[in-house]
Amino acid sequence: MATVLVLNSSASGADSVSRQLVQATVSRLRHQNPGVHVVERDLDADPIPHLNIETTTAVRTGLAETAAQRDALALSNALVEELKAADTIVIGAPMYNFGIPSTLKSWFDYVLRPGIAFRYSEAGPEGLFKGKRAVVVESRGGLYSSGPAQVMDSQEPHLRTMLGFAGITDVTFVRAEKLGFGPEAREEAIRNANAELALVA
After folding, report:
1. Residue 180 is part of a domain; what is its CATH number?
2. What b-and-e string marks burial along 69-106, b requiring 16 or more CB atoms within 10 Å of the CB?
3. What is the 3-class SS of the chain, one letter each residue?
4. Tens of each residue's pLDDT in the chain, 201 residues
5. Using alpha carbons only, what angle is made at residue 54 by residues 98 and 86, rounded to the nearest 5 degrees?
6. Which domain holds residue 116?
7. For a tag on the chain, would you pick the N or C end, based on fewer CB atoms within 10 A?
8. Residue 107 to residues 12, 79, 137, 147: CA-CA distances in angstroms?
């Protein structure tokens, strides 16, 4: 049975464009494969704690002595197992201040563990989550895929780097851009992104 891991990170609730597009994508996947197993993580409603001086060591080394370290390691292990089990990962990633939400960054902090998500060799780092597919739904108020603001995009390059570092290189980015350019531009952006996602799904 195929397994899809869904990560939503928008803090805009039902008004979130990325959430709407992610939900439409998941609905298409379920329609095409009624037996698909979907695991959903709402990183806004149930945020993953930011790493701190106590929990960083536990997540990086797998060793835990304090209660906080044991909790952090248990959460990390659970997130890693969800990712391992997934064939496809669907990520809703709005652009906040040119980058990704800190909640989504925390998810990566807990799963990008040495010896589990990647390892170092003489040839350099090697990602260990190979053979998975990712669909990343990006929502943006401006236009960042081209033009003068492209150099300000710290969202897509960061996501591509982190996924690739874990060995997930089959990644499709679907962008809903210019959402802040007025109602007509917003509707067109959502319509175009939906059409692209229909082909991807």
Report:
1. 3.40.50.360
2. beebbebbbebbebbeebebbbbbbbbbeebbbbbbbb
3. CCEEEEEECCCCHHHCHHHHHHHHHHHHHHHHCCCCEEEEEECCCCCCCCCCCCHHHHHHHCCCCCHHHHHHHHHHHHHHHHHHHCCEEEEEEECECCECCHHHHHHHHHHCCECCCEEEECCEEEECCCCCEEEEEEECCCCCCCCHHHHHCCCHHHHHHHHHHCCCCEEEEEEECCCCCCHHHHHHHHHHHHHHHHHHC
4. 699 999 999 999 989 999 999 999 999 999 999 999 999 999 999 999 999 999 999 999 999 999 999 999 999 999 999 999 999 999 999 999 999 999 999 999 999 999 999 999 888 999 999 999 999 999 999 999 999 999 999 999 999 999 999 999 999 999 999 999 999 999 999 999 999 999 987
5. 60
6. 3-200
7. N
8. 18, 8, 16, 31
Dihedral angle sign, alpha carbons of residues 22, 26, 31, 32: positive
Distance of CA 12 to the CA centre of its chain: 16
The first and second tokens of residue 20, run together, are: 């709407």
Total domains, the chain:
1
